[in-house]
Amino acid sequence: MTITTIGFDADDTLWHNETFFAITQEKFANLLRDHAEPDHLMDRLLAAERRNLGHYGFGIKGFTLSMIETAIDVTEGRVPASVIGEILEAGREMLRHPIDLMPDAEDAVRNLAPDYTLVLITKGDLLDQERKLAESGLGELFDGIEIVSAKTRATYDRAFAVHGDGAQRALMVGNSMKSDVLPAIDAGAWGVFCPSDIEWALERADPPEDAARFRRIGALGELPGLVRSLA
Question: Model pTM?
Answer without folding.
Answer: 0.84
